[in-house]
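## Example pair
The file below holds two records. Each record gives the amino-acid sequence first, followed by its structure token line.
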Amino acid sequence: MGKRFIPRPSFIGELKNYFMITVGLTLYAFTWKFFMAPYQFVTGGITGVGGIVEYTTGLPMQYTYFLINIVLIIIAIQQLGWKFCVKTIYAIAVMTLALELFDYLFQTWPTALNILGEDKQLEACIVGSIFIGMGIAFCFLSNGSTGGVDIIAAIVNKYKDISFGRAMLYVDACIILSSFFIIPNDLHIGLQKVFYGFINLVIVNVSLDYMVNSNRQAVQFFIFSSKYDEIAYYITRRLKRGVTLLDSIGYYSGKEGKVVTTIARANQSNQLLSAIKQIDPNALVSQSKVMAVYGLGFDKIKAKKKVEIDNTSVGKTK
């Protein structure tokens, strides 16, 4: 078949990705300092951990965020390799600097608490959560990462049969539940922190899903191309996804060919489409959402009730 061509991101394309990651994380940092911190809301992720530390000790959250991520990056380099970590390291640096910048600016600038008032916590939580979801979406659409929980989820997903999105959800839920102890001996305020934390978690995920078809959603591709071998090679080597080749015959042309079919995560769609465009600009591509995917690399099949399987009729005909 000859030497296969594996597309690599162009310089301009990578520059755009880093720009959008910067925009997304800057929006995230602004939202945190403007909406979340003044009302002492807690979100998921390492920013949520940093927020809890800031509310209880006064240590600015960006320092906690940076230190925890440094430890996670060292582990991730050993477990996942440098390729996974390059954009993550960049994201951590941008997020830390942006949080430090807005922390300084909002010492004199008005925040949501000054503008909306103390009785508008729900409104601030809703709007802030939407903006946080948008910021994360910009990162995901640019094949980036926000660090923190993304790293933990990726490592868990490597060794356990737990989907990436589900692992993130479990970690985020634990962080939000821990906000109950921000102000000890006050049951009302503790429950209130948890309540707003879960509102944030739900709205962030809905906002994120709206922009990138959910980071847990799978998509199915049917790719019609004469360069099917190069496309299949790219999918298996770069995206680490399985590929099935289907025989095809053109009705009008009568030509025989192959159809590449694969299932991937929704946040891998742009990367795959970009590669297909480089390999074969004339390829015909069909992309569709998948309700659920079970098996290797996706969700585990769950069935609480066992059923009896009758194998006595196997190989027999009526």
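Second record, same layout:
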Amino acid sequence: MTRMTFAEAARRALAEEMRRDPLVWALGEDLVQGGIFGQYKGLAEEFGTDRIVSTPISESTIMGAGLGAALCGTRPVVEMRIADFTLCAMDELVSQIAKVRYMFGGQGRAALVVRMPQGMWRNSAAQHSQCLEAWLTHIPGLVVAAPGTPADAAGLLKSAVRSDDPVVLMEPKNLWTAEGEVMEEIAPIPFGVARHAAQGDALTVVTWSAMVPVVEQAARESGIACDVFDLRSLWPWDEAAVIASARRTGRLLVVHEAVTVSGFGAEVVARVVEALGPGGLRAVERLGSPRAPVPFSPPLEDSIRLSPARVADAIRRVAAVGA
């Protein structure tokens, strides 16, 4: 095991995939300079500017070029810099990349990765802080992954690069500098398999992405024996593990950074309730952001940010129902 940051782990995984397969390459703004979070640092020196490509500032062009290159047989890694900027390329992603394999009967495939760093980061304000994961899980044809640890950042990126389906990788901006243990031999992590982060009988807690370290800290500080799952991928997601845990504990808390209204947490809750039937849960709660733009002001941003203390309070509240 080696301790490294989220950015270092992702960079190492991409470098290994580029050495393994000469058809893997990356394109996006400022990649030759290392990328906005340093996740491409040094790759241009090793692989050259034909495989680490800095593009003009045009998200639709970047996404469209990735699609064309994938249809020609290469495996592009499309860097969107910040998830919010993907809104300028949604037609290429939603109407083309997600559907091309189906519409052409498998004769063409968009085997590419779209990296979308998302969420709050250093007071980036309303146009640079959004979590768009729920939009994308709604789109047939896309795989959506959301790593929350350096090890998962590396393993999920490897799986994404090797996938024959388009994969959207929602990387949490606030965790690029977070450190964690990563295996010397980085193995691909399959989509749809959650990480069982903690075991307990009082309630089931489900989370992903930037909320993973927050929830893990909150579970420790709450004094409650929580069964904690880090989903790692949102589509597909590990329904079987979550439902089995909720059936055993009888209580469910879902925590995500995105706006609570219509967030992916609603899908998790709905599937668990459908599976367990009436009376299957004694308590259920979703915890996310309010339906409001993310403020630039640091104190205002902190007021809507989910802290370990707020999550711990929710854990105690859900655990107390029917106890």
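Notes on the second record: The chain has two domains: 2-182, 195-320. DSSP finds twelve helices and 14 strands in the chain.
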